[in-house]
From TrEMBL:
Record carries keyword Signal: no
Stored Pfam families: CBS (PF00571), HTH_11 (PF08279)
Entry's transmembrane regions: none
Keywords: CBS domain
Protein name: Transcriptional regulator
Cross-referenced PROSITE patterns: CBS (PS51371)
This protein's record includes keyword Nucleus: no
Residues covered by the CBS domain: 83-139, 148-209
Annotated coiled-coil segments of the chain: none
Organism: Streptococcus bovimastitidis
Entries under SMART domains matching the protein: CBS
Length: 209
């Protein structure tokens, strides 16, 4: 299969852009009678596969399937494992202070938390750490497990998942990064990587070039 299967709304967006290009995301949303936020994931997908092009302060243009670059045929089959980054991890018994140091030393947006058997059990963001700092207490004595968001209340992606599908998940969940996991026979998962908006953006720019 050389062409990705579009949803009904993605087909409608493509038609609107063809008829009114250049057109802003806000105008597309008006035609479809939805919010701009509701279209975000569709516009990301259509732009990443090369069907649409976008220029800042101008709007979206229709490129068309026939004009897509050859690189797309490779990109559409790319898996998360092909582009995932190295995850920043910490154990749930480590102190909040130690995790703060790790995050800022690595300039990471979050840390994925592991249990005593190195299975994935939670995530902590910079916002979580800020709240803990404001709350007072000795951060060197508070285990990170006390303030983390625990599984299964965390969205993850699998390493064999397609990049396009994972990118949609990133946008829909409105997060900066997601843990890439591999499930063990006991149903628990191991963190094997991370997928971030930065990684997706860099890939997108490579394809555009």
């Amino acid at each position: 299969m050389s062409i990705i299967q579009l949803t009904k709304r993605q087909e409608e967006i493509s038609q609107i852009v063809q008829e009114h290009q250049p057109i802003t995301g806000e105008k597309i949303a008006e035609y479809l009678k939805v919010t701009r936020a509701a279209l975000r994931s569709d516009l990301v997908v259509l732009t990443m596969i090369g069907l649409l092009d976008a220029k800042p302060k101008v709007g979206y243009f229709y490129v068309g399937i026939d004009d897509q670059k050859n690189e797309y045929n490779h990109f559409k089959d790319m898996k998360v494992s092909d582009i995932m980054g190295i995850p920043l991890t910490a154990h749930q018994t480590e102190s909040v202070y130690d995790v703060i140091v790790k995050i800022f030393m690595e300039d990471a947006g979050c840390a994925f938390i592991l249990d005593e058997e190195d299975y994935f059990c939670g995530v902590v963001s910079r916002k979580d750490l800020l709240k803990a700092s404001i709350g007072g207490g000795d951060l060197s004595k508070i285990p990170i497990g006390m303030i983390m968001t625990r599984t299964p209340n965390i969205t993850t992606v699998l390493e064999e998942e397609l990049v396009l599908e994972a990118a949609e998940t990133l946008v829909e969940r409105q997060v900066d990064s997601l843990p890439v996991v591999r499930y063990a026979e006991n149903g628990k998962s191991k963190v094997v990587g991370k997928l971030s908006k930065t990684i997706i953006t860099k890939l997108f720019l490579e394809i555009k070039e």
